[in-house]
From TrEMBL, chains A, B:
Annotated ranges, domain N-acetyltransferase: 74-227
Matching CDD domains: NAT_SF
Domain of life: Eukaryota
Signal peptide annotation: none
Protein name: N-acetyltransferase domain-containing protein
Species, as recorded: Vitis vinifera
Annotated spans, Disordered: 1-26
Length: 227, 227
């Protein structure tokens, strides 16, 4: 993917995640879990990436395979290089995670109506849970700050789960991890015509840099430098 | 630094590097060597980064120190994370490098006139050699391709060494390394008003992506996600 292209939430203020009230859930609770992806997640991850390519109207440029993702996405400890946070959702609570270095982040959202997921079989993730989205990011470096940051390559939430705050959860999870590691920036890219996404990002505190353009050397033009 | 901002070479076709003819150098030869930087290079590297900030008219945003660079730039083997190629030049040939995994790249350029370097003392690099520039890059990832690439954060050549093909040498060195590793892309950013740089990059085979904008979360807006 050229760069992160999250689906724009058209509502001005996405529903903020709320914690479960002590008296129990009200309305239609949906339980969300963000956890670090591992090699066993490659199948749904590849499907999500392809859906993003379709969303960007560029599926003809999509050549990633489950095998290529498996071979180069999970070769370093989390956050040191390419890292994927997977978003899973469920109508019932997730079991307590075993204590570990990177525990999952959980949220509960109370919706007015339950979500009908036409792809629940395809994205089934054990029990009632389904995979609903992901964010792929990796360290970058600012010589101005003299410190690393994170660059978000992709942020994607499946169609039926959009406009509910899940995109914000994924982006916030990366930002929180950056702060935790003492990093100086989180950066990503957006298409200039995607005004809803731009509005959403600005509401999250991001600046949109208008003067910079991405340059890309790829395909035969890149291969020519191999001699 | 926001992104790579190499000084634009205003000549349409930079002088290509030539190999030393067997009859010996003609004109005013300048020997160039590109090698992987190490912690002992932090002092000139920090000066070059500051010069780049001045070139971009943003020195007030420059807060990197030699110490911050030392602590986070050299913690992984070359190419796995942040990597710096240092450009050194000398009027006399460089000694043969010891055989190693990543031997330096050397070139000779024959100039019409010798270069007067007003900062030769400050950037002295042993013998007749001086540090003349650098490129800082690190792996990125394309989910379209399902493979890594390199992102160039900074590419800089000191003023008196510009327009001689050194920027092209540095960029080519990164591209060649990407091909060697089977990577799919090399990307960087350019300011949209820097038409000479854009022309130069296009001549090197790069596409300039017009629709994408960089989003940045930093400072207090980023810190707010730490809670």
């Amino acid at each position: 993917m050229a760069a992160a292209a999250p689906p724009p939430p058209p509502t001005p203020t996405p529903t903020p995640p709320t914690t479960l009230p002590e008296t129990g859930p009200v309305g239609n609770p949906i339980f969300a879990r963000i956890r670090i992806a591992n090699p066993s997640d490659v199948r749904p991850l590849h499907k999500l990436m392809y859906q993003l390519a379709v969303f960007e109207r560029l599926p003809h440029l999509f050549s990633a395979t489950e095998s290529s993702l498996s071979s180069n996405l999970f070769n370093t400890p989390p956050f040191q290089s390419f890292t994927v946070f997977l978003l899973e959702v469920s109508p019932t609570p997730f079991p307590d995670a075993p204590v570990g270095a990177h525990p999952p982040i959980t949220h509960v959202i109370n919706l007015d109506l339950p979500i009908a997921d036409p792809e629940s079989q395809e994205f089934g993730s054990g029990g009632d849970a389904v995979v609903a989205g992901f964010v792929l990011f990796f360290p970058n470096y600012s010589t101005f700050l003299g410190k690393p940051g994170f660059y978000i390559e992709d942020l994607y939430v499946r169609d039926c789960y959009r406009r509910k705050g899940f995109g914000k959860m994924l982006l916030s999870a990366v930002a929180a991890q950056a702060v935790k590691m003492g990093y100086g920036r989180v950066e990503w890219c957006v298409l200039d015509w995607n005004v809803n996404a731009i509005k959403f990002y600005e509401e999250m505190g991001a600046q949109v840099l208008q003067e910079w353009r991405i340059c890309r050397l790829t395909g035969d033009a890149l291969q020519a430098y191999g001699n």
